[in-house]
């Protein structure tokens, strides 16, 4: 789970605790206690020993990553029985194990089960199950072989090749669809911690949102926002949320704008290794986003010019809209999805036109020879 602001006092007992539940396709009545949440979750309850066996006793060489919640381990289970399986057989899983000394604990663990245990969408990571045993808190997910978007954008090395323009736009569209689903009528959830490390990629670079520990139910009735403690990750939070604690779906739209800008530039939202005027990506890039002729200043050099300039300009204009200081001027996530779909369609048409032009040139060259 992500880096959080503030000191978040956690309860690690298994006593009932009222937690706001996501609007669910499955449950007609939102669960109000820990027992109700765990019963309504459409996932499997694992024992600690089952998960210890599936991960080979949480061996260090099976660690996939580490976050505020704790370490994530690679494991294997039988696809039908969900019993532990030998490495390399059955279904691959990712097991997130709570760090007892970490800042994030039972409350976030329960929120994760609550939301991902009930909501299902192609662009949300699948929660396979959980473990609640004594002080142990674990979560079991589908394994995402290409890891996080953060690694592909910011890590250097032979294992992480620069993402092409088309893959970046594919990831942006998939993540946007996930947020649009959360904001829709079936879920009405505010994600609250959208960032590159929480966007996971499958083998075909399909994006899926993970880590719902900070998610909140959206406002109900005539309320325009949810008042809450300011939690999230520096660099991604909307300015009005930081100033007032008023959380809306447009807060997620701002965070999406930050990630879209990271996709365009290949730079982190906050990077103190850069010159002081460039520490904050949004502040530095905003003047270039406003000027079509200067868009090239923010585009990732690793793209090697393999993109259409009109497409890059449209993506930059969309990012600028999402990053508006006035939340009322930001698009909805449904509108973002529509814009990205149109952009992808234009990019495909440009690719087809370029391929046709290349074929024509080759045919003409053949006639001359």
Automatic annotation (TrEMBL):
Residues 344-369 are annotated as: Disordered. Keywords: ATP-binding, Kinase, Nucleotide-binding, Plant defense, Serine/threonine-protein kinase, Transferase. Residues 58-343 form the Protein kinase domain. It comes from the Eukaryota. Residues 359-369 have a biased composition (Basic and acidic residues). PROSITE patterns: PROTEIN_KINASE_ATP, PROTEIN_KINASE_DOM, PROTEIN_KINASE_ST. The keyword Cell membrane does not apply. Its EC number is 2.7.11.1. Pfam families: PK_Tyr_Ser-Thr. GO terms for biological process: defense response. GO terms for molecular function: ATP binding; protein serine/threonine kinase activity. ATP binds at residue 97. It is an enzyme of class 2 (transferase). SUPFAM superfamilies: Protein kinase-like (PK-like). The keyword ATP-binding applies. Belongs to the protein kinase superfamily. This is non-specific serine/threonine protein kinase. It comes from Panicum hallii var. hallii.
């Amino acid at each position: 789970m992500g880096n959080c602001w503030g000191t978040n006092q956690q309860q690690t007992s298994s006593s009932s605790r009222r937690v706001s539940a996501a609007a669910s396709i499955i449950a007609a009545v939102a669960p109000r206690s820990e027992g109700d949440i765990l019963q309504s979750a459409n996932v499997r309850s694992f024992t600690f020993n089952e998960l210890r066996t599936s991960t080979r006793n949480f061996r260090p060489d099976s660690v996939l990553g580490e976050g505020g919640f704790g370490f994530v381990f690679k494991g294997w289970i039988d696809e039908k029985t969900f019993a532990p399986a030998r490495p390399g057989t059955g279904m691959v899983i990712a097991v997130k194990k709570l760090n007892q000394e970490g800042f994030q604990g039972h409350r976030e663990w329960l929120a994760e089960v609550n939301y991902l245990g009930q909501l299902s969408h192609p662009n949300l990571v699948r929660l396979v199950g959980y473990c609640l045993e004594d002080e142990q808190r674990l979560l079991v997910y589908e394994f995402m072989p290409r890891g996080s978007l953060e690694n592909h954008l910011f890590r250097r090395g032979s294992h992480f090749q620069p993402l092409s323009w088309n893959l970046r736009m594919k990831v942006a569209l998939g993540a946007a669809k996930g947020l649009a689903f959360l904001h829709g009528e079936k879920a009405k959830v505010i994600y609250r911690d959208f960032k590159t490390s929480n966007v996971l990629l499958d083998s075909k670079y399909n994006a899926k949102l993970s880590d719902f520990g900070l998610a909140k139910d959206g406002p109900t009735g005539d309320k325009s926002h949810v008042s809450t403690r300011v939690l999230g990750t520096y660099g991604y939070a909307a300015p009005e949320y930081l100033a007032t604690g008023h959380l809306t779906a447009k807060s997620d739209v701002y965070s999406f704008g930050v990630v879209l800008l990271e996709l365009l530039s290949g730079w982190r939202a906050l990077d103190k290794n850069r010159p002081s005027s460039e520490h904050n990506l949004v502040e530095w890039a905003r003047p270039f986003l406003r000027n079509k002729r200067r868009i090239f200043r923010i585009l990732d050099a690793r793209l090697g010019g393999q993109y259409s300039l009109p497409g890059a300009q449209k993506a930059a204009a969309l990012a600028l809209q999402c990053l508006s200081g006035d939340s009322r001027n930001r698009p909805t996530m449904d509108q973002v999805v529509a814009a990205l779909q149109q952009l992808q369609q234009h990019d495909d048409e440009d690719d087809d036109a370029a391929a046709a032009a290349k074929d024509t040139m080759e045919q003409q060259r053949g006639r001359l020879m």
